[in-house]
């Protein structure tokens, strides 16, 4: 088992494909009690196995712990402020759904392009689009949960 896990960690594309597969499985069992919780836990475990080594590598860089800490604090601040805005405003952000889905597809495609082609400007574009799309998804999902 340990050899299989270390092999997957050396080849992150395997974990990425596995994560997508588990997401599709999760959509299929979302209304099946107990199974949906087990598949969610499986997804969390595989996602942790994917992100753990990346975060550990970032922390090992000079100044890396500060980078990870800043990312955590900024992400937390953005999440709470956008969620609070969605709660206080009472607006419906359902009109953003198709734009966000399209943006998400574009981010995924550009991320796949980045695997083979590495211009710095593409990294900035993907990071910026990702930040905007996922900020919009926070508003969209929080408003849906509240309605």
From TrEMBL:
Pfam families: Bax1-I (PF01027). Keywords: Cell membrane, Membrane, Transmembrane, Transmembrane helix. Its main location: membrane. It is a multi-pass membrane protein. It is found in: Cell membrane. The chain crosses the membrane at residues 12-29, 34-55, 67-88, 95-115, 121-140. One of its GO terms (cellular component) is plasma membrane. PANTHER family: BAX INHIBITOR-RELATED, MODULATOR OF FTSH PROTEASE YCCA. This is Protein belonging to Uncharacterized protein family UPF0005. The lineage of its organism: unclassified sequences, metagenomes, ecological metagenomes.
